Amino acid sequence: MNWQSTQAETEKLKFIGDWLKAEFDFTDLCTRYGISRKTGYKLINRYKEEGELAIRPRSHARHHHPNATPHKKQKRLIELKYRYPKWGPEKLRDWLLLNEAHEDWPAVSTIGDILKKHGLVKPKKYRKRVVAHTEPFSECDAPNRIWSADFKGQFRVGKPYCYPLTITDNFSRFLLVCKGLVGPRTKETMDGFKQAFIEYGLPDFIRTDNGQPFAGLGIGALTSLSIWWLKLGIMPERIERGHPEQNGRHERMHRTLKEAVASPPKTNFAEQQNSFDIFRNEYNHERPHQALNGKRPADVYQASHKTYFDNMPEVTYPAHFEIRKVKTNGQIKWFNKRYFVSELLHGEPLGLEMIDDGRATLYFSKLKLGLIDARENKINRL
Q: So which domain of life are we looking at (predicted)?
């Protein structure tokens, strides 16, 4: 029988691609393309012997080019592309150099050409992008210096919404946590961080946006979550409102996550979490990163030397600080005057570093909360 399409080479490419996917019974595959089993086997055998030349009309031209990529390697590239359909030529080559370094793999451009010839490259959608603001990433010179956290935009999993909590190490891009929650609630979010702290230790900073439960409207933007971090010796760090590019590394991971696990989402939370777990393993242990010179996050990341303990020590201050404990009503007393700070800090010690008579800088742990002024009887927030 004849091929259905007048563009025979295109149809043959698709036929070979579907055969490599092994998603159809061979008889069904031939039926889909309107050819006999005999014709199908003939094309497959030619492809095994000659690679992509098998789909082209016979001619008197040379059947072999000394610089052509061997069929065996082309087939391996195609198999790997089907395994990681979201990866481009550069990432595929990095993976091969890491895992199959005994072979001499072609250049990125050649791999791209091979994938294009087999219809495995989608045209890019170009869009204007804001150049990422990298501060304070210039100071992020080791694992666990800065972690980033956020909730990936919610989406429905069945009827309820799923809010994926994601935590990454900025230096290595290691995805520490990817956990689907029913909402951005404090307790469940703390459980996610506790899981990371127990397994990987504590970072120096945690960088987030200004949404709940990461930041509040009161002094120091404190929340129960950020107070917990401070008591553990971790400094909260917040990006400017409306500037997600300041957490650019984390945002890029979110785009990759969305493509892999939420297009479309699963039908229930258990399946969705399994999808998150598979993605996290691939992202950390399989996927090379250009910013890491082709290495994988797991090749670069190391756990923190700072260990998590459930029993936290009380916050302490330098000897020259004055200490005031926060009352049940959220107030402290200083110079015989009462100042409201936050009810969230009930029972916690605050530190006051004197500036001059009647003025001091107010701290909780290492976080500056404001300037307390006894002459004006108020706290000026920073």
A: Bacteria
- CA dihedral (204, 209, 213, 215) in degrees, to 10, reads 80
Is the distance from CB of 39 to CB of 27 less than 8 angstroms?
no
Question: Rounded to whole angstroms, how far apart are CA atoms 197 and 186?
Answer: 16
pLDDT tens, residue by residue, 248-297: 777 788 788 888 777 788 889 999 999 999 999 999 999 888 888 889 99
Give pLDDT tens digits for 154-204. Answer: 888 888 889 999 999 999 999 999 999 999 999 999 999 999 999 999 999
| pTM exceeds 0.90, yes or no | no
Q: Domains for the chain: give ranges and CATH numbers.
A: 8-117 (no CATH), 137-300 (3.30.420.10), 322-381 (no CATH)
The dihedral through the CA atoms of 219, 223, 229, 232 has a sign that is positive
Say if residues 309 and 202 touch (Cβ distance below 8 Å). Answer: no
- Whether 181 and 161 have beta carbons less than 8 Å apart is answered as no
Cα→Cα distances 291→172, 173, 224, 322, Å = 9, 9, 35, 46
